[in-house]
Amino acid sequence: MTSDAVQPSRFRLVPMRPREPGEEGRAASTLELFFDLVFVIAVSIAASTLHDTVTAGHLGVGLAKYLMIFFAIWWAWMNFTWFATSFDTDDWLYRVMTIVQMGGVLILAAGIGPAFADDDFLFVILGYILMRVVMIAQWLRASRHAGGARRTTVVYACGIGIVQVLWVTWMSIDDHVLSTVVFLILVLAEVAIPVVAEARGTTPWHPEHITERYGCFTIIVLGESMLASANAVFEALSDSEDIVSLVSLGVLSLIVTAAMWWIYFWPPHHRAIGSLGGSLAYGYGHYVIFAAAGAFSAGVGIEVDSQLGVSALDPVLATFTVSVPIAVFVLGVWLLAIRPNAGGAVNTIVPICALLVLCDPIIPIPTFLTTFFMIIIVITLIVASPKGGESSTGTEVRA
């Protein structure tokens, strides 16, 4: 029985029962899409701050902080997404609690600048904890009508609560090395919660809904990258006489972004959502894919600054900031979704071309080799698809 078939209570609340994993026509709701847009604000600020930090010559520090902050963004988004596929009631309380989580995202986003500049993670942690506390309330509400999944919902709520207390303790650590070690331990604790909770009884995942949600977020992040890349090029055009190279970079960035979209949506992603292990690998692996997509826009901005001569970063490293995120994105999609559903030709050409993208800095034309190899990948996928819109398996690819 779906939540839509349940009569609301006198408080106009719908009992939060598990959704049917085989529910027909299940698609992302407007609330979920609205939720994603707020998260992309945080992704955009993180990428922009990464760009500024790396341009100033602090590549290692900038990358480390970006990955730390992106974990908070991604993990809070992912936990809500998997919860919603199982227990979304869309009543007024569910909506209000989701909007409060969105407020937590904005608080986190407000703390990204201080975190990069002064190692001040106060607002990042407060925003993150607010989002996670709301998830505790959601899991406890779900536990009342979860049936056989009740134990799982309680483990989620307790596990999240314990780790949030530890995050508050983490903020009081002054030693940089100890702080880093504890951070990594807490990350492991966070990602272990679903493993422990789902071990003896899984919540009802809806494969098509989950993969559509991941696809929607991928489109939004790629769109943000395209916007940031375009703005970087447009702003630079008024400050540089070398218009040809900037326009070329803009055109190549468009082609590469389109190729990333094409590559991501070629395979049937929903086939990866089955067993607990496969679902965890798919969900966790998207941290790399999303982080790479967000870093791509920062890389284009860094390359523009390098061409203008206003970057403290070595020009070769500046080109790597574009090629590395692209290579990581492609390899991530290949491992999670393409490799299990493709033939030998695709599974040879895609990873090889992704690695060859890293050769881009050896030539003086920024992103030219990257663009060339991305086009080769797309052509390979087209040839491998019998009817153009289908995967190499003959199954229609659903975006």
Structure explained in plain terms:
With 399 residues, the chain is an all-alpha fold. The chain folds into two domains: 28-197, no CATH class; 207-384, I/LWEQ domain. It contains 13 helices and no strands. Helix 2 (59-87) runs antiparallel to helix 10. The chain is globular and about 70 Å long. The two termini are 26 Å apart. The model is unreliable at 1-5 and 388-399 (pLDDT under 50).
CATH class of the largest domain: Mainly Alpha
Strand percent estimate: under 5%
Radius of gyration: 22 Å
**Uncertain runs with pLDDT below 50, 5 residues or more?**
1-5, 388-399
Sheet/helix structural class: mainly alpha
Write a short abstract of this structure:
Keywords: Membrane, Transmembrane, Transmembrane helix. With 399 residues, the chain is mainly alpha-helical. Helix content is 72%, strand content 0%.
Please give the structural blueprint.
Elements: H1 30-55, H2 59-87, H3 92-110, H4 112-118, H5 122-143, H6 150-170, H7 176-197, H8 207-237, H9 243-264, H10 276-308, H11 315-338, H12 344-356, H13 368-384
List keywords for this structure.
mainly alpha, disordered N terminus, disordered C terminus, globular, I/LWEQ domain, 399 residues, 72% helix
